[in-house]
């Protein structure tokens, strides 16, 4: 009944780090190359649940777009666009907001984890899950490549679909299916008990995928491990070394057991393993970085790609929003 469509969303926070790449972007490219119908949304509205410096936001959108395209997202095969270019997101979010309650949204764990002071909750942060549901339903998304931390948001989306049907007796939205990724979550290079994050003030904690080769080499070599030079995998007892093995597995698609066995066969210590991993990362991203720099040096061309993506996304969004408004009595 519904055309298969995959929605991929990413907040524009400059160049994605290697954890973003292995956990999401690489999967999106595989889906695109296997023939899936992809919509790639630069979620700049979600990026301003609290205010951001305007110039930083503008620059981050372009850097994220250039990174995705350089990595393999093909604007001819997939739609890539800025969320804020379509008013449909916020209008549908408002309409869907009539179908749920403050209590329902307030129980979402990912929202609650970001609230530090319950007496001063940013409204944008509170409404974030409803806007996220609008993003999904606007394209009648059938599949979502998301992690387990997004399951509560998917459940809210399903709840709103059921509420819409209950009130209006129209089945116009597919219930989206989760496409779980098998990649282990990449951890901080300096604090492997934490996930890799752009919000970490210590830049050595991560590798951004368009970093130059010297930075990649330095950050891998200085990644925190332990006093045991033996290469083995144990996320509880040896989180630092295990994190590097996870990155190696993500970059090469090799099973973890095979990587460890190969390192032990070659009598490789952690220092030598780091050198090999750094070279793998550098060689993988070298052509992508060249393409990224080319795109960033041609701002007008990059903006034209996003403009074209907006028009293609708008065709779908116009149809969905008009259908919803007609059912609800606005047309």
In short:
Keywords: Aminoacyl-tRNA synthetase, ATP-binding, Ligase, Nucleotide-binding, Protein biosynthesis. This protein is mainly alpha-helical. The chain has helices at 18-33, 54-71, 88-97, 102-106, 109-114, 123-138, 151-168, 213-221, 239-252, 256-265, 270-296, 299-328; strands at residues 6-10, 38-42, 79-82, 143-144, 177-178.
Written overview of the protein:
This protein has 331 residues and is mainly α. It has two domains: 6-183 and 299-328, Rossmann fold, CATH 3.40.50; 203-294, Tyrosyl-Transfer RNA Synthetase, CATH 1.10.240.10. The chain is 54% helix and 5% strand. The protein has twelve helices and five strands. The protein has helices spanning 18-33, 54-71, 88-97, 102-106, 109-114, 123-138, 151-168, 213-221, 239-252, 256-265, 270-296, 299-328, and strands at residues 6-10, 38-42, 79-82, 143-144, 177-178. The strands form two sheets. A three-stranded parallel β-sheet has the order 1-2-3. α7 (151-168) links the parallel β4 (143-144) and β5. α3 packs across α6 (123-138). The chain is globular. The model has no long low-confidence stretch (mean pLDDT 94). One of its GO terms (molecular function) is ATP binding. This is tryptophan--tRNA ligase. One of its GO terms (cellular component) is mitochondrial matrix. It is an enzyme of class 6 (ligase). Keywords: Aminoacyl-tRNA synthetase, ATP-binding, Ligase, Nucleotide-binding, Protein biosynthesis.
């Amino acid at each position: 009944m519904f055309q298969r469509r995959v929605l991929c969303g990413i907040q524009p926070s400059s160049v994605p780090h290697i954890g973003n790449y292995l956990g999401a972007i690489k999967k999106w490219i595989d889906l695109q190359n296997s023939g899936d119908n992809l919509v790639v949304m630069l979620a700049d509205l979600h990026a301003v649940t609290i205010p951001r410096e305007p110039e930083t936001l503008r620059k981050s959108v372009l850097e994220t777009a250039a990174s995705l395209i350089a990595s393999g997202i093909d604007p001819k095969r997939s739609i890539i666009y800025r969320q804020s270019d379509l008013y449909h997101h916020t209008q549908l979010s408002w309409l869907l907001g009539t179908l749920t309650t403050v209590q329902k949204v307030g129980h979402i764990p990912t929202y609650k984890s970001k609230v530090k002071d319950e007496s001063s909750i940013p409204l944008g942060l509170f409404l974030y899950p409803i806007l996220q549901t609008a993003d999904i339903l606007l394209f009648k998304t059938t599949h979502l490549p998301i992690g387990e931390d997004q399951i509560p948001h998917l459940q809210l989306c399903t709840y709103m679909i059921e509420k819409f049907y209950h009130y209006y007796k129209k089945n116009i939205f597919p219930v989206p299916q989760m496409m779980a990724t098998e990649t282990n979550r990449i951890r901080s290079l300096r604090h492997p008990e934490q996930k890799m994050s752009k919000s970490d003030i210590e830049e050595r904690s991560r590798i951004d995928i368009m970093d130059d080769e010297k930075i990649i080499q330095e950050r891998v070599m200085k990644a925190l491990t332990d006093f045991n030079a033996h290469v083995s995998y144990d996320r509880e007892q040896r989180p630092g070394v295990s994190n590097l093995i996870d990155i190696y597995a993500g970059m090469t698609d090799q099973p973890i057991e095979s990587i460890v066995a190969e390192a032990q066969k070659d009598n490789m210590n952690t220092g030598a393993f780091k050198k090999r991993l750094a070279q793998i990362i550098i060689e993988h991203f070298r052509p992508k970085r060249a393409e990224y720099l080319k795109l960033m040096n041609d701002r007008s061309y990059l903006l034209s790609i996003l403009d074209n993506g907006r028009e293609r996304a708008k065709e779908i969004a116009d149809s969905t929003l008009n259908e919803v408004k007609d059912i609800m009595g606005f047309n």
